[in-house]
Design a protein that fits this description.
Strand content: 5-15%
Number of domains: 2
Strand order of the largest sheet: 3-2-1-4-5-6
Mean pLDDT: 97
Length: 292
């Protein structure tokens, strides 16, 4: 596709490689990061340019993409005197890859629309490995015309990019994703802990049942590391608790009940309390093992 003039705001473990894929594809990329040193390091590795504020990065860009931490970070980067919307031109598009609330997605959509700017909430699934390998799944909320314009760029770091509906629909779909994962990880943890207590060859048992109805991404990618008690990688417990908090808040607003999700959130809180906030989310199994 033709080279485009884009900005990427937020160079964390996800944003850094995502922006790198855009540069590799030949787009002209300007980056912004709260830590200027990391932005300078990205430029030295990938080329392009860095900017001191979100507004400076977003000025005159066709497409502005971002991936930050939470609702407050989204507001700080998008709104205000030095926010992206202050400098974006009419007819451009802002894409937010942050996992945040549906409420903030609708708020930013309205603020962008008032300036003649399109907005897409586009949270991702696939973790750091998915970002680095360009294999993320992106679930998008917003207008179809804006989606059609942005999707070819998003495809540089995705294996699937899907429009789910209007503003906020991407965030709701990501919540659906996290609800399903939470229950799966706890079930896998309980199964492995049970198999250990029962004296099975657990690695062999995982290989056997992963070929049947119990198979899941979590089993295939986390079963053996859970068995080995290794958690210094992956999607952090702190991040999962943030996401589950969003899920439960949205569920309350919608009159939905999430009893298993609420229980798993408290089990993650126990891992946090024991110093495991940065452990991979598969560390739930530590709650089920005798202390070593």
């Amino acid at each position: 596709m033709d080279s485009r003039n884009v900005a990427f705001l937020g160079l964390g473990v996800m944003g850094y490689p995502m922006a790198g894929h855009l540069a590799k594809a030949g787009h002209r990329v300007t980056v912004y990061n709260r830590s200027a040193d990391k932005a300078a390091r990205w430029v030295s590795q990938h080329g392009g340019a860095s900017a001191p504020t979100p507004a400076a990065a977003a000025k005159d860009k066709d497409l502005v993409l971002m991936c930050v931490g939470n609702d407050d970070d989204v507001r700080a980067v998008v709104l205000g005197e030095n926010g992206a919307l202050a400098a974006m031109r009419k007819g451009s598009t802002l894409v937010d890859h942050t996992t945040a609330s549906a409420e903030i997605a609708r708020e930013i959509h309205a603020a962008a629309a008032a300036k003649g700017i399109s907005f897409l909430d586009a949270p991702v699934s696939g973790g750091q490995a998915g970002a680095e390998n360009g294999k993320l799944t992106i679930m998008v909320g917003g207008d179809s015309a804006a989606f059609d314009g942005a999707a070819p760029v998003l495809n540089h770091y995705a294996r699937a990019v899907t429009l789910m509906g209007g503003p906020g629909s991407g965030q709701i779909t990501k919540m659906f994703n996290q609800i399903c994962i939470a229950g799966l990880v706890q079930a896998l943890a309980e199964g492995i802990a049970f198999a250990e207590k029962a004296g099975l060859d657990v690695e062999r048992a995982l290989d056997v049942i992963s070929k049947g109805a119990a198979q899941s991404w979590q089993m295939e990618n986390r079963g053996k590391t859970m068995l080995a008690d290794k958690f210094d990688f992956g999607f952090a417990v702190d991040w999962m608790r943030k996401d589950l908090g969003l899920c439960m808040a949205e569920a309350r607003a919608r009159g939905a009940t999430l009893p298993v999700t609420a229980l798993v959130d408290q089990l993650y809180a126990r891992v946090q309390a024991e110093g495991g906030g940065r452990f991979d989310s598969s560390s739930l199994i530590r709650n089920l093992r005798t202390k070593r």
